[in-house]
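In response to the reviewer comment on reproducibility (Comment 2.3), we provide here a single inverse folding case reported in full, input and output, so that an independent group could reproduce the run without further information from us. The structure tokens appear first.
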């Protein structure tokens, strides 16, 4: 009998990271510069481990290869998505990601990276870098070369609950004091454009990847506006943030008891607030903030009882 697959995340130290993954989510973090929780990952740079059931101890990439039926016998060679929680305790470097065709040629077959962010928490009046103001590639290159970052980079205000769709080719950076749940293509390719001229403990600047960044950046910037759709279904409020060629992302607000049913599709789920239980086939599983799991193909329905919010996605 197919069971939900609960996952153990992988943590990544980052110079911009902090301790919010421990204080907000209760995770045991490796140190106080922990920037990323790879929550649902089959990427070779940090695959999550199945925690329960017959596949306990197996990594998600291995399970994908050995039991394709759990994922509907997909055409894709690799698990296509990656869910992360990011703790931007300091500004991230300004960056851009390539699309699939470029990454395939220049990054050893890695996928491109279209991503999206649900803002879990941020400081009052926080902003982030999203897009740029150059009209042409020449102007883009000129402003980079002249270091006219304030003119070039576009800043937008953010608040908790906001959602941003970040297609490959979009210049972006999270800024200090932001906690984000990211759903992205399973890729680890980033081109750094600007790092605020910061130096590490040894006095070195971080490497930039200007040539590739200039190659892949969309000019002029295209704003992929998000228009969330909200739908009430009994004790659940479902917000649809995006349905794109790479992924669809929703928020489920559960208040009380709710039944869910599915067709032949697997889902990635992350509890971002509150708690409850998941009941499937007579088994009860605890859901708390920071729980991540997959509902594989073959589970046709389950119940959630509690007061909680989940971010849910599928390819
Ligand atoms: Zn990014």
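Designed residues, in position order:
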């Amino acid at each position: 009998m197919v069971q939900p697959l609960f996952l153990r995340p992988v943590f990544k130290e980052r110079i911009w990271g902090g301790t919010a993954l421990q204080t907000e989510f209760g995770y045991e973090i490796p140190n106080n510069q922990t920037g990323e929780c790879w929550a649902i990952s089959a990427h070779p740079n940090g695959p999550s481990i199945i925690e329960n059931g017959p596949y306990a101890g197996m990594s998600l990439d291995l399970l994908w290869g050995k039991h394709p039926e759990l994922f509907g016998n997909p055409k894709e060679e690799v698990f296509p998505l990656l869910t992360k929680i990011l703790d931007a305790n300091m500004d991230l470097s300004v960056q851009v990601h390539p699309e699939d065709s470029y990454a395939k040629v220049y990054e050893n077959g890695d996928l491109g990276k279209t991503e999206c962010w649900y803002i879990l928490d941020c400081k009052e009046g926080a902003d982030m870098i999203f897009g740029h103001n150059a009209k042409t590639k020449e102007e883009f290159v000129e402003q980079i070369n002249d270091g006219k970052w304030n003119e070039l980079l576009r800043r937008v205000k953010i608040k908790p609950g906001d959602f941003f769709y970040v297609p490959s080719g979009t210049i972006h950076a999270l800024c200090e004091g932001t906690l984000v749940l990211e759903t992205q293509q399973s890729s680890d390719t980033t081109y750094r454009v600007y790092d605020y001229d910061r130096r590490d403990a040894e006095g070195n600047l971080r490497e930039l990847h200007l040539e590739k960044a200039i190659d892949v950046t969309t000019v002029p910037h295209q704003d992929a506006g998000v228009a969330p759709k909200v739908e009430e279904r009994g004790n659940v409020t479902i917000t649809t943030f995006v349905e794109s060629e790479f992924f669809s992302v929703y928020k489920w607000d559960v208040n009380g008891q709710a039944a869910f049913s599915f067709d032949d599709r697997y889902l990635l789920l992350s509890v971002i607030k509150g708690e409850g239980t998941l009941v499937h086939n007579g088994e009860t599983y605890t859901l708390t903030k920071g729980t991540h799991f997959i509902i594989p193909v073959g589970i046709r329905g389950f119940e959630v009882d509690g007061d909680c919010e989940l971010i849910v996605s599928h390819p």
